[in-house]
């Protein structure tokens, strides 16, 4: 029994080696991760727009599935992602990815922008429409409902290169003094200049959060700032939105990242993923990938060009529907502006009333009751009330004269007197 099982195990090993050496139509950029190829040829990706086939062929040559990483439980690296609510960026739930489905996801991608200027993705995979935003990715990563609110900002526009801050970040991760002439413009330094601990963090971020199509071992100002905020638990951005932006950027520069994450997305939409078409990634011990730290004196920085994301925003539907949607957007924007103006007016009025009440309360505390009554009924007020009570009449000659009310002395003697000396006789 034991001998048969060992023979079966050897035959499986032989089969695994044979499959791995088979030619493949894509190239993975994870040289340290073992990939198992599918047992049958995967079908070709189906595109809505056939004109993108040539672009898809280039993207299939540059597939990055991500990494399934082994790190010590409750270790330093693990706690960094744990505190940032991004633990599942290390531990993907699935180990399989499907190249033909990934190709359809990126090849049929349509970028949309809402009235809040937040980008979203719509695409078609396996004849099923998919809509992807930050909430969708939150469900894919199984982050739950306890994720703190984070602003959806474009880090490539928000984090502008600053020489002084860049040098301080380099010194932080390399734990050494930075040469004065390191760089004058936006540049990137190699991974092996970091300490061993921060090399592990950098590998995880490059593989599963901020992938790049080339020069993956170089880290620029944006990469270092993201690393610093994760290391110090001072995250100012929405991690899911950063992933979404990188998906859009990857489509523009023709490469396909986040293969393992997309597997979770396909599961969410109940897309069929037969195991015979899957490619599998094995766990990787992150500590085995670090290298001996190299001094910054031997640093050769790489000049980088700032990333500019300019996707074509397309609204799916008829032309009349687009016009109607644009009209509704304009109407909503106008209503929002009106509400803002009303809100500002209300706030100003409240401040005015609050200041007036403070003034009145101050006066009331200082004055006595007699002084307050004198202030309320001053001579000017009495005169104004008297002027308003006067009435004008017109006589026969057309002249006007004021009607003077009679005094008590002008009344008749027999008017207004009641005899109370005795009872009234019948």
Tell me what you see in this structure.
43% of the residues lie in helices and 10% in strands. Strand 12 (392-394) and strand 13 form a beta hairpin. It has helices spanning 2-20, 53-60, 76-83, 99-107, 134-140, 155-158, 163-174, 196-208, 221-231, 239-253, 259-268, 319-366, 369-376, 379-389, and strands at 35-36, 69-70, 96-97, 110-113, 119-125, 128-132, 187-190, 218-219, 279-281, 284-285, 302-303, 392-394, 400-402. The protein is mainly alpha-helical and 426 residues long. Helix 2 packs across helix 4, helix 5 crosses helix 11 and helix 7 (163-174) crosses helix 9 (221-231).
Quick structural overview:
The protein has helices at residues 2-20, 53-60, 76-83, 99-107, 134-140, 155-158, 163-174, 196-208, 221-231, 239-253, 259-268, 319-366, 369-376, 379-389; strands at 35-36, 69-70, 96-97, 110-113, 119-125, 128-132, 187-190, 218-219, 279-281, 284-285, 302-303, 392-394, 400-402.
List keywords for this structure.
disordered N terminus, coiled coil
CA-based gyration radius: 39 Å
Taken in chain order, the helices and strands follow as HEHEHEHEEEHHHEHEHHHEEEHHHEE
Q: Helix amount, in percent? A: 40-55%
* Biggest sheet record: 3 strands, antiparallel
Query: Going across the major beta sheet, what is the strand order?
Result: 1-9-3
User: Which geometry do the CA atoms define?
Assistant: globular
Helical region count? 14
Low-confidence stretches: 1-25, 27-32, 315-319, 391-396
Q: Could you tell me the mean pLDDT?
A: 75
- Our measurement of the CA-to-CA distance between the termini, rounded to an integer number of angstroms, reads 139 Å
Number of domains: 2
Number of strands: 13
Structural class: mainly alpha
Strand content: 5-15%
């Amino acid at each position: 029994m034991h001998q048969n099982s060992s023979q079966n195990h050897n035959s499986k090993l032989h089969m695994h080696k044979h499959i791995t050496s088979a030619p493949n139509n894509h190239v993975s950029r994870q040289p340290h991760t073992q990939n198992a190829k599918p047992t049958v040829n995967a079908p070709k990706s189906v595109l809505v727009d056939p004109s993108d086939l040539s672009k898809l062929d280039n993207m299939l040559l540059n597939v990055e599935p991500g990494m399934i990483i082994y790190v010590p439980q409750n270790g330093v690296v693990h706690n960094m992602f744990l505190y940032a609510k991004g633990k599942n960026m290390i531990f993907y739930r699935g180990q399989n990815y499907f190249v033909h489905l990934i190709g359809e996801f990126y090849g049929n991608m349509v970028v949309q922008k809402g009235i809040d200027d937040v980008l979203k993705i719509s695409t078609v995979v396996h004849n099923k429409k998919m809509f992807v935003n930050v909430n969708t990715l939150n469900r894919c990563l199984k982050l739950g409902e306890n994720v703190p609110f984070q602003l959806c900002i474009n880090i490539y526009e928000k984090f502008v290169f600053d020489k002084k801050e860049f040098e301080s970040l380099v010194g932080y991760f390399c734990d050494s003094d930075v040469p004065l002439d390191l760089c004058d413009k936006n540049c990137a330094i190699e991974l092996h200049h970091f300490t061993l601990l921060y090399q592990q963090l950098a590998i995880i971020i490059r593989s599963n959060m901020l992938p790049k199509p080339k020069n993956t071992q170089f880290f620029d100002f944006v990469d270092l700032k993201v690393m610093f905020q994760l290391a110090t638990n001072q995250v100012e951005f929405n991690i899911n939105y950063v992933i979404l932006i990188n998906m859009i950027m990857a489509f523009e520069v023709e490469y396909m990242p986040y293969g393992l994450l997309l597997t979770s997305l396909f599961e969410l939409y109940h897309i069929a993923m037969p195991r015979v078409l899957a490619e599998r990634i094995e766990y990787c011990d992150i500590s085995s990938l670090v290298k001996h730290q190299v001094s910054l004196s031997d640093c050769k920085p790489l000049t980088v060009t700032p990333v500019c994301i300019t996707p074509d925003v397309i609204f799916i539907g008829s032309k009349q529907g687009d016009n109607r949607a644009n009209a509704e957007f304009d109407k909503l924007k106008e209503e929002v502006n009106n509400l803002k103006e009303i809100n500002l007016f209300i706030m100003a009025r409240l401040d005015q009333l609050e200041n007036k009440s403070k003034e009145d309360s101050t006066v009331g505390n200082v004055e006595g009751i007699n002084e307050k009554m004198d202030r309320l009924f001053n001579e000017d007020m009495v005169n104004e009330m008297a002027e308003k009570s006067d009435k004008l009449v017109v006589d026969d000659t057309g002249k006007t004269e004021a009607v003077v009310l009679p005094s008590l002395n002008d009344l008749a003697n027999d008017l207004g007197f009641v005899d109370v000396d005795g009872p009234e006789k019948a």
